């Protein structure tokens, strides 16, 4: 038998489940966590009644009283836009609000906006996000937009996308940006996924001096699927990068097939070349019979009080919407990542 990699779009949900979870595929499925990572026992921490919530960006700040607060921007599928919520412990979150809806009438962000990355720099919040037409369909298109804000709630959009697919490997979609401002080099640095419009194929890199005009690395993509590692043989997507102690640590999602995904880690000295994958990959995988039984997607990782916290979205089958995604949390109680 041969592994089933990608179902056709016209298949029903039942047909797709049978296609992906055939015996040949299931014998390669991995479960649980490795490398010291542990999932929070009361996952998921956000989602549920709010519908499918996925692909988050989190900042750790102080509120007006000096208390530490986590601020989360997330992709909110029922609203087709980007939502906002906040928490004092990273686990219990406030009632969300829609802060960036799709822009009616737009030819590049009119159907859905999602997959935000937010930083606070030079006194303002900056959000790069995916603007989509026909999201999740292969004849659709995805580009990357930018919005700025004084408070992280009210956003002002740039009228044109700041990045579009214009390299052959990008096909018709650039999406899932992750941006950090590198104080050492005085640059904005972006890692992004590109390729197919439903699930992109590989990870590229670009840099900018203003966050608007980006120069793509001339040998993109910088991280591609590894055919020798089944868990990431199909695609690598959804980057989250942390700069720590002279390394760029890249958390990413590897796909066994189109719908089976788990989180891995690689590191590089320059964030572009020479990526070394973690020997225990994948670090966070689905759990049998659980809320994240089908896939683990889009990590967002930060260091808090000497340990690492990861928010991620997990998926489980749910008729008739195919899969239902919610946000979970995992921890690594160690100072180092490798």
Give a summary of the structure in a few sentences:
With 338 residues, the protein is mainly beta. It has helices at residues 13-20, 23-26, and strands at residues 37-39, 53-62, 68-76, 81-87, 97-100, 112-121, 124-133, 141-149, 155-157, 174-182, 187-194, 202-208, 214-216, 235-244, 247-255, 261-268, 276-277, 295-304, 307-318, 322-332.
Indicate the topology.
Elements: H1 13-20, H2 23-26, E1 37-39, E2 53-62, E3 68-76, E4 81-87, E5 97-100, E6 112-121, E7 124-133, E8 141-149, E9 155-157, E10 174-182, E11 187-194, E12 202-208, E13 214-216, E14 235-244, E15 247-255, E16 261-268, E17 276-277, E18 295-304, E19 307-318, E20 322-332
Antiparallel strand pairs: 1-20, 2-3, 3-4, 4-5, 6-7, 7-8, 8-9, 10-11, 11-12, 12-13, 14-15, 15-16, 16-17, 18-19, 19-20
Question: Can you describe what's shown?
Answer:
It contains two helices and 20 strands. The protein is mainly beta and 338 residues long. Strands 1-20-19-18 form a four-stranded antiparallel beta sheet, with no helix packed on it. It has a four-stranded antiparallel beta sheet with strand order 2-3-4-5, with no helix packed on it. It has a four-stranded antiparallel beta sheet with strand order 6-7-8-9, with no helix packed on it. A hairpin with a 7-residue loop joins strand 7 and strand 8. The protein starts with 12 loop residues before the first helix and ends in a 6-residue tail after the last strand.
Output mean pLDDT. Answer: 97
Q: What's the helix count?
A: 2
Estimated share of beta-strand residues:
over 45%
What's the end-to-end separation, in Å? 37 Å
Q: What value does the Rg take, in angstroms?
A: 19 Å
Major sheet strand order = 1-20-19-18
Structural classification = mainly beta
Biggest sheet details: 4 strands, antiparallel
Judging from the principal axes of the Cα atoms, what is the shape? globular
Helix content class: under 10%
Which sequence of SSEs, written as H and E, runs from N to C?
A: HHEEEEEEEEEEEEEEEEEEEE
Number of strands: 20
Low-confidence stretches: none
């Amino acid at each position: 038998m041969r592994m089933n990699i990608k179902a056709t779009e016209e298949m029903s949900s039942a047909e797709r489940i049978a296609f992906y979870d055939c015996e040949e595929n299931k014998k390669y499925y991995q479960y649980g966590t490795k490398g010291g990572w542990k999932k929070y026992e009361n996952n998921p921490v956000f989602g549920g009644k709010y519908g499918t919530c996925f692909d988050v960006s989190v900042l750790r700040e102080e509120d007006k009283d000096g208390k530490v607060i986590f601020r989360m921007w997330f992709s909110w599928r029922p609203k087709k836009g980007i939502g906002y919520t906040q928490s004092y412990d990273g686990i219990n979150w406030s009632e969300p609000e829609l802060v960036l809806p799709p822009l009616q009438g737009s030819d590049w962000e009119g159907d859905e906006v999602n997959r935000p990355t937010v930083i606070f720099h030079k006194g303002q919040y900056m959000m790069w996000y995916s603007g989509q037409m026909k999201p999740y369909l292969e004849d659709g298109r995805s580009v990357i937009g930018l919005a700025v804000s004084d408070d992280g709630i009210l956003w002002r959009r740039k009228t044109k996308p700041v990045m579009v697919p214009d390299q052959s490997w990008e096909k018709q979609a650039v999406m899932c940006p992750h941006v950090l401002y590198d104080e050492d080099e005085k640059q904005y640095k972006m890692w992004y996924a590109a390729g197919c419009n439903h699930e992109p194929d590989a990870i590229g890199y670009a840099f900018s001096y203003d966050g608007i005009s980006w120069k793509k690395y001339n040998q993109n993509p910088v991280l591609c699927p590894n055919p020798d590692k089944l868990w990431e043989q199909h695609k690598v997507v959804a980057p989250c990068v942390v700069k720590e102690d002279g390394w760029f640590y890249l958390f990413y999602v590897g796909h066994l097939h189109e719908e089976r995904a788990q989180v891995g880690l690689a590191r590089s000295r320059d964030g572009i070349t020479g990526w070394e994958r973690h020997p225990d990959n994948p670090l966070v995988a689905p759990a049998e019979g659980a809320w994240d039984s089908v896939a683990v997607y889009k990590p967002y990782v930060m260091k808090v009080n000497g340990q690492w916290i990861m928010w991620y979205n997990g998926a489980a089958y749910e008729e008739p919407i195919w899969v239902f995604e919610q946000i979970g949390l995992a921890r690594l109680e160690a100072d180092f990542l490798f």
